[in-house]
Write a structure and sequence with these properties.
alpha+beta; Alpha-Beta Plaits; 2 domains; binds alpha-D-galactopyranose
């Protein structure tokens, strides 16, 4: 069986095991994402260089026989009479259905299971991936099709308005639009995007989970977003690329957050240029600087993430390393010569104390490519 076939089989079996055999399930797989540079700037219209990776979640969905909504996965089960939020595994899965239903015919009660190797709370966008995988599986079940941008909008409605996380849009756009062996350059102000080929056949990314997850409920994430928005408002701009070096004018309480968003968006644009000219040392340096800014100005790193980043950088053949995702725990990503990847993974596992949660990743395909049967084209309307 292919890897995708295997994943579909596992998710369908999870459904049968949790709730008994039923109608044949429709399935879909969504990848995780890694940001190369451009963290905590998407919600203030910044630039981001990111990609999808081939760690993924697969969702299986089938109609419910008795009108109850059911969800299973990550060792949890949820059953309820309506698709409301309850702080459990059902939330994001049901939110996908509710968001789709809000833009077309309401959906009948569903049974949904999720399985896969993309870890939760690891800074690799598992929240967006589970919502998007559920949305695509539901589209397949209903025999409907959505334009890629509409799918992004539905995933954002699900995460922000239904689950209630005030995220930016980088995760959803990376998971939908990413292309294999390419890095996605996003302009989160205009919505523009372009792809840049990964220029180095022998350079890869090592991702390692720290095992830490500090930001329970997303409180700190929300505070970073509010501070970034306040910094923009204080300077009379609506997006962070407009700040330039005017972060110097901010009052001391806002200055570090303002400097992070102003400099990080510039670093992301520079990272895209480094990819275009194939300057691996420059990209590595920008990743290092990004981590430093996230640590000291945005204050989203942890001692363990800092130690992991330092350990990766100490391995010959590592060009740069940084925390990835929202921070407060999660994972780090290191840019390494392929020949140094094993040594880098070992150095990282020695710091985190975790074995088996270090991955060698390359840019992978997003849903526009892997779910072209139901995603893409101009026609919309679920
Ligand atoms: C999370 C959010 C994104 C983005 C990153 C930080 O992944 O979902 O929108 O803000 O954090 O860059």
């Amino acid at each position: 069986m292919t890897r995708a076939g295997d994943a579909s089989h596992t998710a369908s079996r999870a459904l049968d095991q949790a709730f008994g055999a039923g109608a044949a399930a429709s399935t879909a797989t969504a990848p995780g994402r890694v940001t190369l540079v451009g963290e905590h700037v998407d919600y203030v219209g910044g630039h981001v260089a990111c990609m999808a990776v081939d760690l993924a979640l697969t969702v299986a969905v089938r109609p419910s026989r008795d009108g109850w909504w059911r969800a299973a996965g990550l060792g949890q089960r949820a059953e309820r009479s309506a698709p409301v939020m309850a702080g459990d595994i059902g939330d994001r899965l049901f939110a996908a259905a509710v968001a789709l239903g809000s833009r077309g015919p309401a959906l009948p009660p569903l049974e949904i299971a999720v399985a896969g190797d993309l870890p939760a709370s690891a800074g690799l966008a598992s929240s967006a991936a589970v919502i998007l995988a559920a949305a695509v599986a539901i589209l397949r079940l209903a025999g409907r099709r959505l334009a890629a941008e509409e799918l992004v909008a539905i995933a954002l409605t699900a995460e922000r308005d239904i689950v209630g996380v005030p995220c930016g849009d980088l995760d959803q756009r990376a998971i939908v639009h990413a292309r294999p062996e390419e890095v996605l350059a996003l302009d989160c102000a205009s919505g523009a995007r372009r792809s840049v080929a990964w220029p180095w056949p022998t350079v890869a990314l090592v991702v390692a989970a720290s095992g830490e997850c500090h930001d329970v409920g997303g409180r700190e994430y929300r505070r970073r977003r509010e501070a970034a928005e306040s910094a923009c408002a204080a300077l009379g701009v609506s997006t962070c690329p407009e700040i330039g070096d005017r972060w110097r004018e901010l009052e001391p309480g806002l200055l570090p957050r303002g400097r992070h968003i102003a400099t990080e968006t510039l670093r992301a644009a520079a990272a895209v240029r480094a990819l275009e000219v194939g300057d691996v040392a420059a990209l590595g340096r920008l990743m290092d600087e990004s981590h430093e800014s996230l640590r000291s100005d945005c204050e989203v790193s942890t001692d363990r993430l800092d130690a992991m980043v330092a350990a990766a950088r100490g391995v010959p053949g590592c060009h740069g390393a940084r925390l990835v995702g929202a921070g407060f725990g999660g994972s780090i990503v290191a840019l390494v010569e392929q020949g140094a990847a094993k040594a880098c993974a070992a150095a990282l596992a020695a710091v985190s104390g975790l074995d088996g949660v270090t991955w060698l990743v390359r840019p992978a395909a997003g849903l526009e490519v892997t779910a072209a049967d139901v995603v893409g084209g101009e026609e919309g309307g679920f």
